[in-house]
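Recap from last week: sequence in, structure out.
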Amino acid sequence: MSQTIYPIGIQNFEKIRKDGYLYVDKTALIYQLVTTGSYYFLSRPRRFGKSLLLSTLEAYFQGKRELFEGLAMEKLEKNWLSYPILHLDLNISQYASTTDLEDILHRNLAAWEKLYGADSAERSLALRFAGVIERACLQTGQRVVILVDEYDKPLLQNLHDEELQTRLRNMLKPFYGVLKSMDRYIRFALLTGVTKFGKVSVFSDLNNLDDLSMRQPYAAICGITEAELCTYFDADIHTLAASLQLTYDETRALLRKRYDGYHFVAGGPGIYNPFSLLNTFKYMRPEDYWFETGTPTYLVELLKRTHYDLYDMANAETTADVLNSIDAVSADPVPVIYQSGYLTIKDYDPEFGIYRLGFPNQEVEEGFVKYLLPFYTNVQAAKTPFEIKRFVREVEGGDYDAFFHRLQSFFADISYEAIVGRNPERDMELHYRNVLFIVFKLVGLYTQVEYHTSNGRIDLVLQTDRYVYVMEFKLNGTAEEALRQIEEKRYALPFSADKRQVIEIGANFSSATRNIERWLVR
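Predicted structure tokens:
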């Protein structure tokens, strides 16, 4: 076991520095941040270090120079002044009602009023907040620093409830709006969260916030870059390589495949998931640490409610305006999936301003798709790994009939009501496409799969060491038509000289039975 003390779950900068935990130095970026502006917003996925960033800023603005010894900030900052700080953390409640939010805000305001005094004429939450800011500045002689952690949690937890989200937004909007009206008393403000809510949002009156979420200079302010991995974790990589009986380069490649791949800016550096990386080095085992700490139930509910095509999610193209705007009534779940860390920027077309998105890495792709399976089929979550193992073994062994019988069982016993909404024909087609997408995406983690879908049909090529499967799926057609299309479109031609056995399969999905009706093999 390594002697390094990894700050897993430690979000307090002072505790990290005093107790000898590893700290990846971000203070040069922090100095740049505090000396070039005043009002900022930052969106990053959960467990990416947002709370630690705020804690580091708090220590800096408290003038605690001793905590920065040996860091870049020690040489950059010359004055080390102390400012009054109002630190609001909204991560400690479930927000099932507006009362929960009101209680959190009231408790923080009461604590600040104990320090800086209260005014009985200030009755609303926003007026009390404004009064605290003014008095804190006047009493200390220094302008106020405001740090808000997880500003969006009340809204994010109620994506499914438009009415409650509207009430919560109407509470937060004037509260955060104080930051603009009290500008003369404020030295610095940073709001962080997982998402940025657009349109009629909490920010509509707060147009002086500089959104850092997709800014190149701050792409690496949270998370770990490749350079930081080599600088701070080189010895850990060698130890992990020995533990896994791999070479140093093989271990680097494994870490990159599993945990790297977050791109918050087009053309920006790849960012490793810090939580998974730290756990991997602590326990010397690469596992799905980040995914297992927070199940994305609200995302799956959003996908189901909007009848979203999962194929589009894995191949999404969108604009910066869409990525940066989430609202309760939107039928597009891509922005919240992206901002939550389950999709990331893969490419960018500067001519048209179009971003191409995809899963950032293996941990997220495998974890998310496995998590989807029980929501779209009758497979229990605990049995998902075993079902996928059987699928893979069947295709590897050439047992295509067993594979298709198992696929039929995935569609069985799913009620009509669970599938369709306002457009039964479209929703039925979408259901069968989504189930096939999930299954073949999971099988593709262990074999090579090329998957395409359009106009009621799906064609795919699945390759193993011994077999090449060329499959065509029809909706409300016939298996004969599907098999004939493989021949007419010459899908198997690229494998005509392949030494592996080529198996052509045409299958038909029936809306009447809500299942695969028949398949033919050639």
